[in-house]
Amino acid sequence: MDFRKEFRVPEGGKFRLRDIDPAFKGHHESAESAKEETELSRGRLAALQILLYAERKRAVLIVLQAMDAGGKDGTVGHVFGALNPQGARVAGFKVPTQMELAHDFLWRVHPEAPAKGEIAIFNRSHYEDVLVTRVHGLIDRPTWEARYERIREFEKLLAGTGTTILKFFLHISKEEQLARFAQRLDDPARNWKISEADYKERESWDAYMAAYEEALAQTSLAHAPWYVVPANHK
């Protein structure tokens, strides 16, 4: 199976998240069985980063999106931990500050784009402004559709100046999310990652799925593709 084709969001067409099984795990039955292949891939990432940094002619932007407990932080730590931090950095986009709200929604994002020779990882991203804002009724349809266009323009600008853009939605089931919430409650080291608000957001699960489906379909392009990664099994 060619995962790059199987899980890539098609350009210019509709798709449904329910058509991708979040419990799919390929030919590996456990993390242990995947360990050797994972380490080989991490090594290849590290080697390619050295070439990217030495050449200083292009950049890489990785966009990670997921529902709460989807595995973004773990992915950053485990996969991108193979990279040299001198040439890789992580940016996250939380609730906008008053200063940020006084500007256009991409104002706070552009300065975090990677320089040539650098890899930047967005742990949550500019897509929050067509997801959370939509689900909670902070913007209307004409506004989020206009934002799709601004996002397409922004990513086209980055790609046109030498940035490779890869976007990943870590896809978990509603049941798996609940199980991970319970694990956080039981783990003193991770209690801080769970709150009543997280459970409240679950009430909007279907609305989030609809928002994600449309946003991914509207912005998955040849120069900035979206991939839906089955993520129930880390």
Describe how the helices and strands are arranged:
Layout: H1 3-6, H2 31-55, E1 59-66, H3 72-78, E2 88-92, H4 98-101, E3 119-123, H5 132-135, H6 141-160, E4 163-171, H7 174-186, H8 196-201, H9 205-219, E5 226-230
Parallel strand pairs: 1-3, 1-4, 2-3, 4-5
Write up this protein.
With 234 residues, the protein is an alpha/beta fold. The protein has a single domain, classed as 3-Layer(aba) Sandwich (Rossmann fold). The protein is 42% helix and 14% strand. The chain has nine helices and five strands. It has helices spanning 3-6, 31-55, 72-78, 98-101, 132-135, 141-160, 174-186, 196-201, 205-219, and strands at residues 59-66, 88-92, 119-123, 163-171, 226-230. A five-stranded parallel sheet has the order 2-3-1-4-5, with helices on both faces. Strand 2 (88-92), helix 4 and strand 3 form a beta-alpha-beta unit. The longest helix is centred in the N-terminal third of the chain and has 25 residues, at 31-55. The chain starts with a helix and ends with a strand.
List keywords for this structure.
single chain; 234 residues; alpha/beta; Rossmann fold; five-stranded parallel β-sheet; 9 helices; 5 strands; 42% helix
Short summary of the structure?
The protein has a single domain (3-230), classed as Rossmann fold (3-Layer(aba) Sandwich), CATH 3.40.50.300. Helices cover 42% and strands 14% of the residues.
Q: Total helix count?
A: 9
Mean pLDDT across every amino acid position = 94
Instruction: Write the H/E string, N to C.
Output: HHEHEHEHHEHHHE
Domain tally: 1
- Going across the biggest sheet, name each strand in turn: 2-3-1-4-5
Q: Please describe the biggest sheet, giving its number of strands, its sense, and whether it closes into a barrel.
A: 5 strands, parallel
